[in-house]
Amino acid sequence: MKAALVTADGRLVGSTQRNLTTVHEGETAEQDADAMWDTVVDAVRELTGGHPDIARDVAAFGVCTQYSSIVPVDAQARPVGPMLMWQDQRGTDHCFEIMARDEGAFMTWVERHGIPTIGSGLSLGHILYLQHDEPAVHAQTAAYLEPMDYLTARATGRITATQHSTYMFQLCDNRALGAVAYDDDLVKLAGVDAEKLPPLVAVDAAVGTLLPAVAERLGLPQTATVYSGTNDTVTVAIAAGAFTPERGGLAIGTTSVLVDPVDDFRVDLEHQLFSMPGPFPDRYVVCAENGLGGRVLEHVLHRIVYADDELGDHGADDAFAHLDATLAATPAGAGGVLFLPWLRGSMAPAGDSGMRGGFINMSLDTDRAALVRATVEGVAHNLRWLLPHVEAFTGHDIAEIAFVGGAARSPQWCAILADILDRPVLALDAPATAVARATALLALQRHGVLARADLDTNVPVAQGYEPDAQRRDLYTARQTQFEAAYAALLPISEALT
Prior knowledge:
Nucleotidyltransferase, domain 5; 2 domains
């Protein structure tokens, strides 16, 4: 969880972050929603306490979170159960029951919303699970909220949502932007209890000012206006300046995601690309989730390179400390090893929850440094597979890519991305807090302090990385085998998983 204090001209005064615990058990994944709110309060209080003169003039408050995660709340916006995270698979059976009840349901959702009712961690499945399988929780629930709407409700006392924030509810007709009501047909077909759905407001609405008690806890004025929340995908687009022609945005955190604006409602089921209502009333953003990104490197470093297990304690205080030196010392192509990053299923441009990855083409010469380089290259190859499909979907060429997220702090990772994507990569300044800063800038724009054009120009670039032409042929050849490996291993993965 990250918090940022930003001035009216876009200057980052300060930032801080806190850990949030996700409890995994089988196909379930939960967070404590009360703990999330307390963590937000603690982080904001640290910033306002350290900068009281600036804090007392704060005019706007914005929230950005992950999405496809549901918090059941009472009428006071207090959680009556844990938050079901996007990794949580519960409710998938109820989603498939929708299509079993009505043979036209699949195409109804594709034509109106974009995404069919497949469950697999989407919010609609979470809502149906709580409604049907947790009746005690459902009875106490006044509204089901995505985390950004939950936090704005805790801050203001007003329960709201938007066409954008409820995208994974799958209950709005997205063929036109500006919806402030759910689609009656979709609600009826889904069998959702409509009384538990939060009222919709405009995507850029002022939800309200801070509750007096909340303002006191945060160290902010009661007059600070809280604006409708956004999800991390569209906020990456703002952080990267992706609404600028020929620039795309890339974030590699837990997952990898490419972002670019879309002019109208479109659906590409084959490659799992969709038009998501964006942060502005007149634009969509492509929903192009590439799957696990930084999380797979973290897994390799912590569970293989620096593991602490029955074989011995090889732990390191900072598993990423030698990453750049390792990448620089290991030749391009990782000695022939190819890493397939589908450790929890694949997503766009080829989605299959049963797909699994790993290292292929290892030899007796393979060492752990080669495995680390292959992991970073594999994440980049997965993005290169996605990139042309995103360009075809949006109709926009992406001539350069602005890079945000913790991975953008690694010069070697940036250089590898530029080489494999064959595009200039712009690493943003303070990339780990770029999305938090962009959330603040969007709130300032909605408050009238900044113009919309200011968001595109207020994108500080720390360094640019050009593709190395000498590596183009190598990586192009390996890209062909990377994509071939998916097709070859898919039936094996499906049989094993």
